[in-house]
Amino acid sequence: MFASLSDRLTATFKNLRGKGRLSEADVDKTVSEIRRALLDADVAVPAVRAFTTAVRERASSAEVSEALNPSQQVLKIVNEQLIEILGGEARELFFAKRPPTVIMLAGLQGAGKTTLAGKLGKWLREQGHTPLLVASDLQRPNAVTQLQVVGGQAGVPVWAPEPGNGVGNPVQVARSGVEHAREQYYDVVVVDTAGRLGVDAEMMQQARDIRDATQPDEILFVVDAMIGQDAVTTAEAFRDGVGFTGVVLSKLDGDARGGAALSIRTVTGQPVLFASTGEKLTDFERFHPDRMASRILDMGDLLTLIEQAEKAFDEKQAAEMGRKLSGEDDFTLQDFMDYMRQLKQLGSMKKMLGMIPGMGQMREQLENFDEREVDRVEAMINSMTPAERANPKIINGSRRSRIARGSGSTVSDINGLLERFDQAKTMMRSMARGGGRGVPGMGGMPGMGGLPGGGKKSKGRMAPPKRTKKGKSGNPAKRAQQEREAAERAATASQGQPGSAFGLQQDADQIDPSSLQLPAGFDKMFGR
Amino acid sequence: METPDIIIAAVAAVVVLAGGGFALFRGRSRGGSAPTLKEPPVRPGGASEAGEPDDGGVTTQERPTEGEAQDQAGSAVVEETPAQPVLEKPESAAGRLVRLRERLSRSGALGRTILGLLSRDKLSTADWEEIEESLLMADLGTGPTDELLEALRTRTQVEGTSEPGAARELLRSELLKLVDPDMDRRIAASPVLGDDGQPHPATILMVGVNGTGKTTTVGKLARLLVAEDKDVVLGAADTFRAAAADQLATWGERVGVPVVRSDRDGADPAAVAFDAVKAGRENGADVVIVDTAGRLQNKAGLMDELGKIKRVIAKQAPVQEVLLVLDATTGQNGMRQAQVFAEVVDVTGIVLTKLDGTAKGGIVVAVQRELGVPVKLVGLGEGPDDLAPFDAASFVDAIVS
């Protein structure tokens, strides 16, 4: 596996600690690391060149001279620059003043156009439109059937006058589809076209013919998130061939870093409008530039983590958790186990931990983490009586040895579990107090920073989640800030404040640089 | 190492997230702009325990036993295509690559750029950078690019490349080294004798992520084998994507190859695969090609399902070939794909598709080297016979010429 950019930058800056300023040589070194990271993320070479030039300029300018910590500064610049490029001029789908609005899908073979047609249809229907899908892919065997099935699943009618498999005229189908929509008062028409290569002159002509016949309001270029350097050539070919007004990134649920988003945006200037994130018809969402930025840089993805957490716990449970965190209710081992089980259902803990920014540094330890440890912890808790779970304090020596025997572990395992559970509880409370509420005076939190260095290893260990938490609180707040209406803005902003108590970096941006540089104690947590 | 630490940290972090996140998100979800939450995808018939760690290939699902699978045979239909008046005659394998060479050289701009630069008397830093960029643009990846560059640099210094012929030879030999002509690239497509002394059809399993062209490749490969006078049976074990089985059936019809498919969508793909191989054995077929649904390599549940398909097929006949279908446009993620698929089903060969475009498929160089799995076939166009056996020498020639 490639080390993430943050890992590499951290390594690059190891010798620079204390310098506090970036010399030109430092900038060079950093820029070359960034270049490599972007190339590994499949960002196209010309886009990388443009990007690194911009970063170099910003990094050498006065902006950085007050640097607190060079790697944080650079990462911040890189992240901001990425978001700026990816997210500039985010916009809504453009609907025609006089329906039907025609949306044409175009792209390479296997990019996911037909599936996307279904998803788009469903999404439009849920937005209150009456979409019609038009099967203009007459090339691939049974593409028409596929669209019909997908349309059926989405509950969206499909216009398919031709059976496909090489028979029929796609231009004719598209034209008649739009006419049909006009007669039947469908207000959006989604035209699915055959996959084609940019170098295939004949097929590109056909695409142009379809475009001219239907006069689409939007032409969406569907592109696979795992596409490599060819993204630019292909995007240019489609831009020059048919032209497109927006981009849809498909298969984002894979683990490709998706540098194509940056390449296409840089080269064609067209925005990425949607992301397709799964095989079900509902796996379709607006594109989030900030998340994409973190993904391209491999910096962890807190928002996804939060979403996953929300997926695992419904509102009631979340509220209950909130109460437990605030100390209104007691957080017991039983709760701990319940949550752990639910988390397990979400998928690998390893993966989830990997989403926490800064965890990249722990990558090796994470790799070695045996998921079955979760089961062992579960076994220990299962060997406790309900009373013990509710009140761990009553667990004395003889209870401990009983539990150890019952779970096939040793007494020292039990000791460790209880000790750390207790610390985690305290920690969570203080975190919740500091972060969740937006109470500025969270005395415990700044102290946290000191803990890791201090003698207590155990406390250091627990520091990471806390830290991370912090970064998070900054994150959603910031996001919310952007998204919410002005009236709500003030409220959210106050939530964002706690982050600033951590240090200057915090209030800066969505990437929380402090979380990229974890306290020394964190390592110990995974070490040994 | 005290792993419970990790667990506790994770649970603590996530609990705080969920609890704290709840507070933060509460307002927003009322505002209606909350991100859409997705249910974890569950496929019918698929391994739904997406969260289960892969514990050495044991899934909680029951494998269909011999008896069960036979029961299911009733519901699977062997579609003997009514012999159509005219069956298409596929082109023979020999000479396919020659015909397709011109398409290959479309993506050959790589060779020309580098060649042009290499033939100069003196190479400046900028020239080297340009060479590096064109290699990177071929999706070669940073690692192999550095190596090739280093090799070129050394050899140009030692040997000199002012004559165009010398430069070409130099580039050719270095590229050839990367592609490695010595690997065995034959497709195992002859029946083998099983342990029981019975002939087994050679079984080929087609795997890959979504949209790389698995079904199309199965269709084209069937034609290639038919052209070699093999008896082929196709198994439509992609029971997930809409109309995938129909797509395969259309391919089968064209060359009169029977397609074994389930009579309903969402059937257990392993059962369909089992039936296909069984039908192949009973009909005395030479080759059975099993198409599978596309799956992203990071979906543990689906990868488990794939492992199950292979194990279940092995009950009938050992799987001779597992071909990973890679899209030539795929970038560095291709490496991940190859690694994970190789772990789960032990990939024996790679099919590089969509090479007729501008993409150069450089990722296979890294994959081939890292995993030792050779590229066996290349897809070079939309035509039914545009699939050719990969030949390292002519491949490199097409790039350099």
Q: If you had to describe this structure to a student in words, what would you say it looks like?
A:
The complex is a heterodimer of chains A (528) and B (401). Chain A is of the alpha/beta class and 528 residues long. Chain A is built from 25 helices and eight strands. Chain A has three domains: 5-87, Four Helix Bundle (Hemerythrin (Met), subunit A) (Up-down Bundle); 101-299, Rossmann fold (3-Layer(aba) Sandwich); 303-526, Signal recognition particle, SRP54 subunit, M-domain (434 Repressor (Amino-terminal Domain), Orthogonal Bundle). Chain A has an eight-stranded mixed sheet with strand order 3-2-4-1-5-6-7-8, with helices on both faces. In chain A, helix 5 runs parallel beside helix 6 (143-154). The model of chain A is unreliable at 435-528 (pLDDT under 50). Chain B folds into two domains: 77-93 and 186-392, P-loop containing nucleotide triphosphate hydrolases (Rossmann fold, 3-Layer(aba) Sandwich); 101-179, Four Helix Bundle (Hemerythrin (Met), subunit A). Chain B contains 15 helices and eleven strands. In chain B, the strands form two sheets. Chain B has a nine-stranded mixed sheet with strand order 1-6-5-7-4-8-9-10-11, with helices on both faces. A two-stranded antiparallel ribbon of chain B has the order 2-3. In chain B, helix 7 (142-159) packs antiparallel against helix 8 (164-179). Chain B is globular and about 65 Å long. Residues 17-85 of chain B have low confidence and may be disordered. Classes of the chains: A alpha/beta (528), B alpha/beta (401). Chains A and B meet through helix 2, helix 6, helix 9, helix 12 and helix 13 of A and helix 1, helix 6, helix 10 and helix 13 of B.
